Amino acid sequence: MSAAVCQTATNLEISSARLPENLANISAYRHVGFFYLGATAIPWATWLFAGWNSHRPPGLSWPPSILLALGTLGLAAPMLLASVLIGRDPILRRDVINRLFRWPRQGGRFVALAFLLMPVSILLAQVLSLTVGYGATQFRFAQHPSFTMGGMSAWAILVIAPVVEELGWHTYGTDALLRRWPVFASSMLFAAYWGIWHIPLSSIKGYYHSNVMMSGWLYSLNFLLSIFPFVMLMNWLYLRTGRNISVAVVFHITAGVFNEILQTDPASKVIQTGLLILLSFIVLWRERALFFQKPAFATLPTHPSSLP
Questions:
Q1: Would you say residue 196 lies in a domain?
Q2: 149 close to 71: Cβ distance less than 8 angstroms
Q3: Mean pLDDT, contiguous 10-residue spans, the chain (308 residues)
Q4: Structural domain count, the chain
Q5: Residue 282: domain span
Q6: Strand, helix or coil at 152?
Q7: What SS3 state is found at 136?
Q8: Could you tell me which of 183, 174, 173 has the C-alpha nearest to residue 296?
Q9: Considering only CA atoms, which of 226, 265, 246 is closest in space to residue 118?
Q10: Selection from 27, 47, 28 nearest residue 39 by Cα
Q11: Least C-beta-crowded within 10 Å: which of 28, 89, 208, 252?
Q12: DSSP letters of 154-186?
């Protein structure tokens, strides 16, 4: 029995030694239930209340600043929960700081894709839309975004919101899933969760998700469906750049900004989703080992923590 224990320990040491340090640390992201429960309950509570208030008569509704505060609290909930879990663990603090502030030394083409993939895909989708009768006016710059948010600049929201979100999702949430499941399963689970997470925003009058819902079932369905290839490609770039958080932030920002900076027809966004799905299948085929094999770090010992 003693020999078996020693052999197991040796195997784990070898497995860990084969991993870059920033991958081996995934074993420390263990509180998936605590994180996702809080990251759901807080936004749903604040956003549903904000949605109810946004539809009250003008004399009875709260001022836009209150709606903005409620929206911001819901948005920041994953980041705040991640901060609590990371702040109490020196291994996680070191890991997150390294992934946030150290730009990847390798994988330059993946960094370039983080900047270019979403702008190029929406432009290509608009070009394809011309062949089925949609107008060229959608290549003009938009004078303003298609939504409002409590009196705050929508352009600022398009930059700030992805930063705040990814400081929750890709500091803790994604790695908590990767610790348990292969990349493909983790991405699909998170995409389904993320779609559900956004639903209460559709109740807030004037918000992007509310406007999408009002535009019809096709565009609402497209928004939810587009999340799956988006998450798949974002996690691919995230892992291929050594779990770099800034790469995920850049990818998320470009997706939002370049879907609003032009007068893009909603039908072009449907075409873009089709293009991203096609690209996702190509990436899945070429990166089968990355997406479908159980990662080596899932076999590492559980990292001790004071939380139950």
A1: yes
A2: yes
A3: 38 37 74 96 95 82 82 95 96 92 81 97 97 93 76 85 97 95 96 96 85 87 97 96 94 95 94 98 94 64 36
A4: 1
A5: 21-299
A6: strand
A7: helix
A8: 183
A9: 226
A10: 47
A11: 89
A12: HHHHHHHHHHHHHHHIIIIIHHHHHTTS-HHHH
pLDDT of residue 23: 63
Q: Rounded to an integer, what distance in angstroms lies between the CA atom of residue 59 and that of residue 42?
A: 27
Asked if residue 265 lies in contact with residue 43, where contact means CB atoms within 8 angstroms, the answer is no
Residue in the block written with tokens 């390294």: 98
CA distance 99 to 93: 10
Q: Is residue 219 included in any domain, yes or no?
A: yes
Give me the pLDDT at residue 295, please: 63
- Supply the DSSP string of 75-117, one letter for each residue: HHHHHHHHHHHHHT-HHHHHHHHHHHHS--SS-HHHHHHHHHH
Q: Is residue 156 classed exposed, middle or buried when 0-12, 13-18 and 19+ CB atoms within 10 A define those classes?
A: exposed
| Paired tokens of 231 | 């998450």
> Residues 237, 113: contact at Cβ < 8 Å?
yes
Assigned domain for 1 exists: no
CB count within 10 Å of CB 111 equals 20
Distance CA 258, CA 31 (A): 35
Query: What tokens were used for 282?
Result: 């190509």
- At CA 289, angle to CA 284 and CA 290, rounded to 5? 70
CB 70 within 8 A of CB 49: yes
Contact present, 294 and 182 (Cβ < 8 Å)? yes
Alpha-carbon distance 63 to 300, whole Å?
Answer: 51
Query: What token pair was written down for 76?
Result: 């920041």
Q: Evaluate whether residue 181 is within a structural domain.
A: yes
Q: Scanning the structure block, which residue is given the tokens 């709260």?
A: 62
Enter the tokens of residue 39.
Answer: 């990251």
The rounded distance, in Å, linking the Cα atoms of 272 and 119 is 10
pLDDT for 150: 65
